[in-house]
């Protein structure tokens, strides 16, 4: 089974915490098992067999899409902040 997931964070002992939102699963793997250059916030495709993580690949398209969405939301927020309905 292929699962979409995101690197949530790096913890102590060089461990990566990977969250698969759709399945509600959390995987903890050594950072050396990640694709080269992977960092928190990056999206991955996980191949899982019988609850065991067997392969990890970087999902460049999903990572870039999410970055654009976050950037767009941030820009909308900045515009809204400058149009406060309260007097200073």
TrEMBL record:
It comes from Streptohalobacillus salinus. This is DUF3006 family protein. Residues 75-88 have a biased composition (Basic and acidic residues). It holds the Pfam family DUF3006. Residues 69-88 are annotated as: Disordered. It comes from the Bacteria.
């Amino acid at each position: 089974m292929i699962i979409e997931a995101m690197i949530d964070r790096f913890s102590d002992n060089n461990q990566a915490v990977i969250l698969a939102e759709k399945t509600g699963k959390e995987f903890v793997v050594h950072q050396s098992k990640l694709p080269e250059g992977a960092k928190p916030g990056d999206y991955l495709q996980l191949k899982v067999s019988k609850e065991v993580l067997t392969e990890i690949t970087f999902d460049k398209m999903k990572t870039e899409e999410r970055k654009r969405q976050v950037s767009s939301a941030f820009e909308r927020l900045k515009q809204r902040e400058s149009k406060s309905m309260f007097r200073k």
